[in-house]
Every structure is written in C-alpha cells, then in structure tokens.
Amino acid sequence: MVSKPQAASTAQATLWGRGSAEPADTAFEPRHPKSAPKSLTQGSSACANGLPHPGGARCSSYPRGDLTPPTQSNHWTMPRALWTAWVWAVIILSTEGASDQASSLSCDPTGVCNGHSRSLNSIPSGLTAGVKSLDLSNNDITYVGNRDLQRCVNLKTLRLGANEIHTVEEDSFFHLRNLEYLDLSYNRLSNLSSSWFRSLYVLKFLNLLGNLYKTLGETSLFSHLPNLRTLKVGNSNSFTEIHEKDFTGLTFLEELEISAQNLQIYVPKSLKSIQNISHLILHLKQPILLVDILVDIVSSLDCFELRDTNLHTFHFSEASISEMSTSVKKLIFRNVQFTDESFVEVVKLFNYVSGILEVEFDDCTHDGIGDFRALSLDRIRHLGNVEMLTIRKLHIPQFFLFHDLSSIYPLTGRVKRVTIENSKVFLVPCLLSQHLKSLEYLDLSENLMSEETLKNSACKDAWPFLQTLVLRQNRLKSLEKTGELLLTLENLNNLDISKNNFLSMPETCQWPGKMKQLNLSSTRIHSLTQCLPQTLEILDVSNNNLDSFSLILPQLKELYISRNKLKTLPDASFLPVLSVMRISRNIINTFSKEQLDSFQQLKTLEAGGNNFICSCDFLSFTQGQQALGRVLVDWPDDYRCDSPSHVRGQRVQDARLSLSECHRAAVVSAACCALFLLLLLTGVLCHRFHGLWYMKMMWAWLQAKRKPRKAPRRDICYDAFVSYSERDSYWVENLMVQELEHFNPPFKLCLHKRDFIPGKWIIDNIIDSIEKSHKTIFVLSENFVKSEWCKYELDFSHFRLFDENNDAAILILLEPIDKKAIPQRFCKLRKIMNTKTYLEWPVDETQQEGFWLNLRAAIRS
Predict the structure, then answer these.
(1) Domain 718-860 -> CATH class
(2) How much is the pTM?
(3) What residues does each domain of the chain span?
C-alpha cells in the first residue's frame, strides 16, 4: 500500500484520476465552489483573465469596494506578464494543496482507501470510480459538497464518522447508487435531510448517532431505503422527540439502535410501523416512556436491549400488553440500575410478555437489600417462560445487608440455563440449588467458589438434571475433593474447572459416573494420573506444565493439550478412538507418517507452533503428502522450522535442504571411497617416486636445521666420517683404515660399525658423526647407490656440507659408475661429479700409493 498517487500502480492511478485515460479536467478539481481562489471570482471577466480592456486601457487593480478609480498621481498599473504569473501561482498552489490532501490517502489495488486520522479538513479531490471503500473517519472535515463524491459511482462503503461535519449539500450522495454502508456518526449535523438518501436504494447500514439534531427531520428520512437493515440514530443530549413519521417506510430491520437518554416525547405507534425488528437497542436515561415504547414493539421484536437506564421509578402496567400477542424472545439489560421495587416490576414483565425465553443482565447495579416479601413477589409463581438467565458483573452496593433471597427460589423452577459471571458469587445456597429442578447448564465462572462452599451448593438433591457445570477461574485447589463433592450430580457429563490452582493431581479420584467432558486447562498441573475418569470423550489439559501423556483413555475422542512441554505425540495405542487432537505450541521436534497412521480415526490435528527440526525425512513426509492439509487444520502457516539454522523461521512447506544434508550416508561413503583412492594413489606415487624416502629425509632435515649451522672447532672429534656400503666394508676396513689410521701421524676415522653410539637413533648418529668430522668421505660404488643408509648420509651431507659451500666432502669412486644409473633424487651428487674432482681407486697396484697420498692431502686440507 502506498500513500502518494505519484507512486501508485496503474490501478491506483485510476482511483485518483491521474495517469489514466480520462480527460485532464477530471483530475483534482476544486472541492466545492467556496474553495476556488478569490482572484478568479472577483472583478470583470476580462480583467480576471488578464486581457486588455476593450477601450485600450490596462486592467487596474484596487481594493474591492472602492468604486472610484485612483487618480493619476497615485495610480499604479500591474503589467500583464506579472498579472498572468500571479494567477498561475495561485492555481499551482491550489492544485498542490489538493494533491497534498489526496496524498494523505492510501489505497490498495482493490479500491479500498484509508484516510483515517489524517487531519484532513476536506474530502480529497480527484476521487474516481475506482474507489470501492473510503474511510475518512476521525478527521476535521466540516463540509460535504455536491461534487466531492460525484465520480465515486462504485463506492460501497463510506465512513465519515468522528469529524466536524455541519453541512451536507442536498445532492452530496446522489451519485452513490451502489453505496451499502454509510457512517455519519459523531459529527455536528443539526438538521437531517431526506434528500441525502433518495438515491441510496441499496443502502444496508446507516449510522447517524452522536450528532446535534433534536428530531429526525420534518419528513420521513428513510422512506427511500427499502434495503436498510441496520439503523443507528439519536444522541445523548439534544435528541428528545420521536414522531410517528420518523420510521415510515421501514418494514424490516436487523438492528435498530436509538440513543435517546433525554427523550421527552414519544408519539404512540412511532415504532409500530416497522413490522419486524430483530434487535432493538434503546439508550434511555429514565423509564417514563419505556412502557409506551414496549407496547409498540412487543409484537414485532425478537430481542430488546435496554442500556444506561435508571429503573428506580419503573412501574409496569399489566393492562398495557395483557391482551396483545408478543414475539420478544430475549431481554438484555446493560448498565441498568434496579431497586427491590423495580426488580419486582421487571419480573412481572417476564410473566406478561410470554414469549421471553432469555434474560441477560450485563454490568447492572441492584440498589437494594433483596427484601422482596413485602412487595407481593410471592404472588408471582414463576418467571414466565424464561429458560435462560445470564448475569455478568452484577454490583450490589449493600451486599452485606442482603436477605437470603428465599422469596425468589420458587420462581426458578423452569429455568434451564443459568450463567453468573464475575459477580463475586461464593455460595449457591443448598435450598436454591434444590429449587433449580430444570437446570441443565450452570456457569459460575470468575467468581469466588471454593471446596467449602461447593459442598453446600452441590448438596443432596441439588440440580438433579444438571449436565454442564462451569467453575472456571474460581478458588478450587483440590482436584480430589472437587470430584468427591460433585458425586451428587448424577447426570453431570461436562465439567469445566479450568483456571483454578490445582498444581498437582492425585493418583485416584472419584467422579460422577456419566462424565464425558473435562476441562483442566490452565490449572498448573505438571503430570496426569489415573485420577481422570475412564469414561471421558473430551479432555482439555492445555496450557499446563505437562511433559508427557501416557494415560490409557479408551473412549477419548478429542484431546486438547496445546501450550505444554510435550516432546512427541502421545502413543496412539493409549487413545484408540481419538479423532481430534490439538497439540500446538509444545516442544515437539518432529512426527512421522507412521505416527499419524497409528491414529486410525484421527481426522483433525493441530500441531503448529512447535520447534520442528526440518530433517530430510520430515520434509519428505510433510511435503510429499498432498492430503496432509486435510488433517492439519493449521497447515502450512503455523509449521515453521527451528533448525537447521539456515532454514530457521521458514515454513516447513517451503524449506529445502541440500543434497549433502539429505543423503549424508551416501556422501560420507563417497568421500571415504575418494579418500581411500587418494591414499592408494598417493601410496603408489610415493613408491614410484620414492616419496616415503623424501618424507623421511625432510623430517631428518628439519631436525638437523634446529641444530647450529656449524659445530665449533673444539667439537671436531674425527678427521673424517666414512660413508660406505656394507658390501664395500672389506675395502674400507682392511685397506683404507689400515692406510690412514696406521699412518704417522695417524688419521682418526669415524665408522658406523665402530663409532656409532648404541641405542641412539641411527639418523641422529649419522648427523652427529658428520657434524663432528672434519671431512666426509663417500666411497661410491654400485653398492653405495643401492644402499638406503648411504642415501641418508649423502643427503645429510647435502644439507649440512654442500649448502655451506665448503669442501668437506671427499668422493672416492671405488668402481666406475654410469651417471645414468644414479637416481634422479641424487641431483647434487650428479652435479658434484660433473663439477668437482673425485678420487678414483686404481686397479693397478703401482698407482695405489699415489691414491693414498692424494687422499691424505685431501683430508688435511
């Protein structure tokens, strides 16, 4: 809904006459003639239009009423351009004012426009045939003109109540031939005119309450309203007269409300012209003319409601209606004051208006002490044909002086339904209960009944035919005692004891044998026991603290258990014939198709407002069952997801989960398979490209990196560390060791067989030996390349020796090696063999002495 025509849709533009295909002169025309700019209505037509005078003189402007043109010495002349600009400025400002009025309305595309409480002082201009409903109530509108609503030919509802309207022009509503609802209440209309309504043939509702008129006009106002069904007229102060012509032309009304607190003149038969009135509401301060009015309507009225009346002086004349047939079935007294005397007069009325079946007293006051014996009440044997008596908010200022009411007990024998609400009733005397022999329904809600007083009320032979007893919101505290006290009511089948403070439920209780309905809602109970009667067909335990339901009730058909703390649906085997269950606003997370199917006779389920976990199974079930909406009465709006978090707040019907959430097992299986294949592939690649070896070397390298880059000189323990293959040990141990360690001065060599520390990690032994040796001798051969430990020793020498750019490594080629046979991972070895000189063991014995000489020189360098 938008509030400005400029932002409205095409449909809204049609409502305002802007942006439509209508001629430009139909949009926002002046509200009525008196609102037109004065500059356009004063002076001659020629000057008003800014045209030159026929005689050639310019149009002069001077104060209106001054008929003498100004003299030449003081005259002034407005240039034509300036005059034209001023006229256009006035027109633009006037149009902008109308636009502001229109923008205060908000309309939807169906034609419903709301201008309620917008501080409007006139009916907005530019309304068109697109307007179907217009609410301008509670504003400051004072005038309704002939042209204000002339284009609203499709208007059906018009609300102008609570304004300051004092004038309505004769043809203001002439074009509203489709109007069905008109509210002109609470304005300042002092005179009413029948011409307002002469074209409103289909009008059904008319409210004229709260205006300033004294009468309903000189002629019949409503003779042109054959379809009128609801009429409200009068006011609380000035409306003082009702005449015979006032309601002429009306034959049937569903509701007639007359506010005539200060009524002084009622012409007999004024209301008799209305042949049938379903409901008459009469506001009358004093009862002086009440009987006269009753005489006219008693044969054509179904329900009579008397409001705001002081009946202290009411006197009923038996001769007035004793010989007339009556059709009144219901009497309502709302905010009416009685005395003991006037109450007796009202009781007489019940006897003589024989058709009355229902009497209601709402917010009434009894100014008396209940002493009816001295008022010949004993001569009245019953309350006519009254079967239903309702009393709400009865005030008795002198309650503590009240008599025992025993004089009215005999009048109650025919009453079948009694409701006494919120009237501070704490006791129904046993004798009165015994006189209510026909009573079938008793409602004592919102009173002060307790177990002690209930014992007296439900005495022996009390309420022998009572079927329904309502004790809602009283002062009952013991469920066990309440059940025992009601055992005297053999025909009781419906008991409402909700909103009492029972708190707990005993294990066993006694109840009347025919109990079928029990209402225990809002009683603060936290668990259910076998105290409940097994004969129940309807049970209401809503709004309590229940966290489970595990009772077996074989005859239960309806269960109301909303607003508790249940986490799951009850077990269907405990409730075999359940057809209705309302379990909304608990803490249920889910329910399944199997659970619902287990309730074989379930026709209605209300389970909205719970904290549903929208799992894949739950969504699949709820969204896949087209017939679910026929069982779930609050589906789908009240079913919202609480989790997962990304769908929280969404309707269950609209929630969607990803494939990974709905097929987690398959996704996990696929992921495990992929991981297994990845590990298998990694293992194959590691084996093929010696990845395991590289990882070991990386770990060792990281360990080595944590040590100092170069050991201090004093830590050098060996002249050389010898790295060789075990298969070359004979050459190393019997030739090289003999030549170097037995030389003078001897060289100290580090051999892994002899010098590694036992129990120490072999890699740490290798690293420490290399670091504590001045040189590292690599005895290269085919065996060396194939040896795993030689690979480690060579690689560690890469990290600690070759990367430091020194000559600590000495390569001895024990036998010729094809460089292509050296693995790719020995890239530095290949590089060294290509760039550095290495010693080659000669096969010729004559050259071996030179070999040892060169080796000793290399170690000393």
Answers:
(1) alpha beta
(2) 0.68
(3) 661-690, 718-860
